[in-house]
Amino acid sequence: MELLLSVSIGVLVASGVYLVLRARTYPVLLGVTLLSYAVNLYLFASGRLTVASAPLIDQPLATYPDPLPQALVLTAIVIGFGMTAVLVVLALRAVVETGSDHVDGEQQ
Amino acid sequence: MLLAVTVLLPLLGAALPALLARWVRLDPARVAAALTTVSLAIVLSRAGVVIDGPPLVQSMPWIPQIGLSFSFRLDGFALLFALLILFIGLLVIVYARYYLGPREPKERFYGFLLLFMGSMLGVVMAENLLLMAMFWELTSLSSFLLIGFWRHQPEARQGARLALLVTGAGGFALLAAVVLIGHIVGSLELSAVLAAGDRIKSHALYELVLALVLLAAFTKSAQFPFHFWLPHAMTAPTPVSAYLHSATMVKAGLFLIGRLFPALAGTEIWFFVVSGVGLTTQLVAAYIALFKHDLKGLLAYSTVSHLGLVTMLFGLGTPLGEIAAVFHIINHAVFKASLFMAAGIVDHETGTRDMRQLSGLFRYMPQTAILATVAASAMAGVPLLNGFLSKEMYFAETLQVEWLGSWYWVLPVAATLAGIFTVAYSARFVHNVFFGRPPLGLDRTPHEPPVWMKVPVAMLVALCLLVGLLPGLTVDPLLRAAAGAVLGGDLPDYDIKLWHGFNLPLLMSAIALAGGAAVYGVRRYLFDLHGYEPRRFGGKMATEWVIARTIDLARAVVSRLESGSLQRYMLLLLVSALALGAHGLAGTPLDGGARQLPADALAVTVAFLGCAAAVATAALHRERLTAVIAIGVVGLVVTLAFVRFSAPDLALTQILVELATIILLLLWMYFIPARGPAEPERGRHVRDVAVAVVAGVGACALTFASLTRPFSSLSGYYLDKAKSEGGGYNVVNVILVDFRGFDTLGEITVLGIAAVGILAMLRNLAPRAPGLDWEGRPWAADRYPAMLAVVARPLLPLALLVCAYLFLRGHNAPGGGFIAGLVAGTAIVVQYIAHGSAWTRERLNSGFQWLIALGLLIAIATGVASWAFDAPFLTSTFGYLTWPLVGKFEVASALAFDLGVFLVVVGTVLVILASLGELSAGPRGPLPARRTEGG
User: Fold this and answer.
1) Do the domain assignments include residue B810?
2) How many independent structural domains does chain B possess?
3) Residues 6 or more apart from B71 whose CB is under 8 A from it?
4) Has residue A40 been placed in a domain?
């Protein structure tokens, strides 16, 4: 399972890196989103993987998952949405100001 | 701390001339003179003690960790220099008051002068070597200010920069040398260093230390090949030249050589380097001085030559040589300062310093002429004057050298040759300026200067005579004390007197005088032969060439790296990160050996789906709608991963954020072409794929390596205390709103800032959406589908009910402020989608930013409330209430905090999505052309 997750994170990072190297704001933003997924998964997994459980202590369970990375990743997901929104508006503004959606503000 | 006061008085008093001139209209010269007099009085009051007794050392700890102490020392050598600095400083202050024009900023001049005086005193009186290096830097800086005093002149600025560059570089060398000496000796106090001479000289680093110290000394004292800065520093006002470039700053290098003499001198390499450089400097500069037409240029090269003479004497390493060196330091300071002042008078009264123009001034200013003649004779080494005595000693010492074997005659011959040129340029200074035909083309008739410009010159010239006639009565006690301090032991028997009988040194003096007169006599042919000006290449040009090339190099590097292309920056950033990561992790075993969970077919299938969707997003990014769908699939798979790995809160959050993100992307897509343009460069595409693959492999390896390594976590603490201290079963939520509530407060603040930033960026923004889709069809006129509108209306109360439920149970089961906020936000956004913003705005007030403010205030108020119970910020408490129908219900103060979180999240989602949605209600049509007005 660890290997599976690692490979998945690797694929997410590779796709994300390819996209952030594009010239247009739209693929760059998709790339940032993919990279956020990868980072969130990595942070989450740093508490190690646990199946068939939950960080709810009203039922006695043999093992609980690590709640701390979960709390950190939860806020990261929400803030990630805020960041994406800021980038979208920034890109929109850039199109209006420069007449182009190229990241360097160039006309194609 | 009397010694510290001596140094600090001028240093800290540097601001006083300006302040007092402004407040009480006090003459800045008087203020500077008063401060100098007090320091001089203090030094004089200690002079008797120091001349007869051991050195005076006063010490205070400063930063003992690096060996820096605030300690000062007054021994004979320091006393000599302190007296020169203060006495000549006082004369220069008087002289400058009449030299500077009425409109020149005198308070600035005297401020800089005091700053320099204090720094210079610090150099000569520091007991701690690090402290000395600090003051050394300060002399470089303050001399920069003084040389560039006439800052409107480009030559003055260039000269100042050149001096700072050369002497500042020497300062670095000194600092390095001091650090090494501290390493060898184990202390930076001079007393310890001077006593450890043998240890330093036998140490493996001796040559390096010596090289660094000499680099510092030679740059400061303008020794060949670093002499070139001094002539260019002649752009300074003449009082500055009289002070810095004859008596004080350029002597700092000699001071350093003398100061560290017991610690470093006496080796073969010392002899060859120090006396070799000294001799070369002396000869070259004396030769050049003769051909300078500028009065101050002549004096500058003459100074360089005399400094070379002293350096060479230090290099000889014999006790009598050191005595002669110290003696010549005194004599040179006295006659050269008076000569500079005389040159200043000539410049002041005639308006020129060019000796091709000046002539026959004796008839206009006989007193000045007589003073200058006596001083120049002292410089030439005419008997009955002080310069003669030290020069005799110098000639005598060159005959005693043992190091050179059968080449013993080189030094005396070279010294006599330099003496001949010295006499020749001294004769030129006097004869060319004051005698002969009347001056040509002056725009005014010269006359004697104000009497107070002559008094300082007269006092110095009187000293030349007194020392020359009665050396035993005047200079001898100070000389003995100073030379004793340099040698660090008993002095040999010696006797300074005028007449030693007919001997070789006397013959050398006679040859120098006669030869010099002869050379001056045939100067016209020499001038023609020399064709001196203009010089094509020199140290100044070399320095400026180095500066220019350095700037070019920096520009080239910057323009290669900083091309202005964000795309390129991103590539550089990623490649550097990969290189650094690979470098740091190379050689680490991949599998850490911890137990792994078995993978099952379902997990493999879902993971494959997610990976395929991610690759599809990348591959199909130009088909923008398809890419949105693909990235949605990735988000769903991530959600499933959270479900599978026991993180229900994360799964809920992720799926809701996914929803909001997709809406966001669709709103954006409304304004941009649905199909991205093709990218022209194939090479870039291949390169980026390569970078991406390397990054992916790296991330995969990193994740696997960390997941298979042993692990310990803080989680046990949270799992134990969540119920007993936080009052909740859902540990994730308890951590968010209780244990780490302060973090969460920060995070919702960031969300609020993002929302406000978006509002600000959207202000006055009117993007135009394309009127047609990518196949040229107009958009559907039916904007709000009826089916959705019908379903959406009853959905809202249901969604809000679910939201309340998720919110209230959050402390004990998956849910809480973040999740409930996302649910509520999405539910309201659905109304916008279904009915349009105009319809929704009629029914729902849009100032969603106020929700954010309210939420933040509630969260902060919850935290502040705990102060009322004498608990730290954000301390939580909880209790139980029994609600009718519902039953026993837990109420934690963290719930109020969570309410704040909830409001901020709702506000943020709505601000973002609703305000973007409002934009899409604007006009359609092609994008306007690039705006021409500023924006």
Assistant:
1) yes
2) 2
3) B57, B58, B59, B60, B126, B127, B128, B131, B189
4) yes
Does A61 contact chain B (CB < 8 Å)?
no
Peptide bond into B17 cis (omega under 30): no
Which tokens sit at B346?
A: 């000539």
DSSP E strand stretches across B763-920? 878-883, 887-892
Using the Cα atoms of residue B31, residue B37, residue B40 and residue B46 in order, give the sign of their dihedral: negative
SS3 category, B777: coil
Domain with B136, as residue range(s), is: 126-524
Which of B488, B508, B524 is the C-terminal boundary of a domain? B524
| Residue B208 CB contacts under 8 Å (≥ 6 apart), including other chains | B180
Q: What does the block give as tokens for B687?
A: 């390169």
What CA–CA distance (Å, rounded) separates B709 from B704? 9
Interface test with B, best of A7, A18, A53, A58 (most B CBs within 10 A): A18
Using the CB atoms, write b or e for B504-513: b if 16+ within 10 Å. ebbebbebbb
Beta strands B61-63; B72-74: pairing state? unpaired
Angstrom distance (rounded) from CA B166 to CA A73: 57
H or E element, residue B68: strand B68-69
Closest CA to B108 of B31, B198, B212: B31
* CA B451/CA B709 separation, integer angstroms: 89
Residue B607 contacts A where some CB pair is shorter than 8 Å:
yes
Q: How many helices (H) and strands (E) does chain A have?
A: 3, 0
- Name the minimum distance, in Å, from the CA of A30 to any CA of chain B: 8
With a CB cutoff of 8 Å and minimum separation 6, the contacts of B702 are A42, B581, B585
If residue B72 lies in a helix (H) or strand (E), which one and from where to where? strand B72-74
pLDDT for residue B536 is more than 70: no
Residue where a domain stops, chosen among B484, B503, B524: B524
**% of chain B residues with pLDDT over 90:** 44
pTM assigned to the model? 0.65
Q: How far apart are CA B329 and CA B326, in angstroms?
A: 5
What digits encode the pLDDT tens for the residues B412-452?
899 999 999 999 999 999 988 898 888 877 778 888 888 88
B616-643 pLDDT tens trace: 999 999 888 899 999 999 999 999 999 9
Within-domain flag for B117: no
Asked whether the beta carbons of B36 and B13 are under 8 A apart, the reply is no
Number of domains in chain A: 1
Domain-embedded: residue A56 = no
Would you say B333 and B288 are in contact if contact means Cβ atoms under 8 Å apart? no
Structure tokens at B116: 């320099």
Distances (CA, A) of B106 to B28, B96, B110, B156, B240: 7, 9, 6, 17, 13
What ipTM goes with this model? 0.96
Q: What sign has the CA pseudo-torsion B59, B62, B65, B66?
A: negative
B219/B778 Cα distance (integer angstroms): 80
CA distances from B330 to B248, B734, B934 (A): 11, 82, 68
Which single residue is written with the structure tokens 């990976």?
B611
Residue B216: inside a domain? yes
Assess A1–B contact: CB distance below 8 Å, yes or no. yes
pLDDT tens readout for residues B923-933: 555 544 444 43
CB of A63 less than 8 A from some CB of B: no
CB neighbours of residue B76 within 10 Å? 23
- For residue B739, being part of any structural domain is answered with yes
Q: How many CB pairs under 8 A join A and B?
A: 316
Domain enclosing residue A34, as ranges = 2-46+65-98
Residue type, B530: H
Residues 6+ apart with CB under 8 A from B161: B144, B148
In a domain, A26, yes or no: yes
